[in-house]
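Hi all, posting the design record for the shared folder.

TITLE: backbone redesign
STEP: 1 of 1
STRUCTURE INPUT:
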């Protein structure tokens, strides 16, 4: 997949999205992303990792954990910042990045 095109697709739904590159891999930073949860909306900075990271096919990192039913939150340092993610695997990288984002966000509903 073409990273620039995938970032543009995310920008179509979230205009503040910006690509960040580390180790030759593109991530997508989304500051102030509003996340629909079972308890109501919460806002977090988000970092989409549309490729393998730490044994997971793709990841969504957040600026802070979200209280609720998701388990096994872990802390990671990326781009000189602490990020948090939960145990949520099998979101395949071989799909549109907007689909990867939507599938990760579905965990909160």
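Okay, here is what came back for every position:
SEQUENCE:
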């Amino acid at each position: 997949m073409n990273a620039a095109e995938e970032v543009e697709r995310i920008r179509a739904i979230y205009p503040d999205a910006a690509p960040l590159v580390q180790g030759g891999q593109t991530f997508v930073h989304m500051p102030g992303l509003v996340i629909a949860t079972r308890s109501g909306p919460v806002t977090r900075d988000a970092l989409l990792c549309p490729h393998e990271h730490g044994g997971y096919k793709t990841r969504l990192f957040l600026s802070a954990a979200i209280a609720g039913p998701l388990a096994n939150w872990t802390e990671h340092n990326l781009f000189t910042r602490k990020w948090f993610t939960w145990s949520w695997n099998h979101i395949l990288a071989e799909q549109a990045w907007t689909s990867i984002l939507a599938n990760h966000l579905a965990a909160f509903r």
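COMMENT: The chain has a mean pLDDT of 95.
Let me know if anyone wants the other runs.
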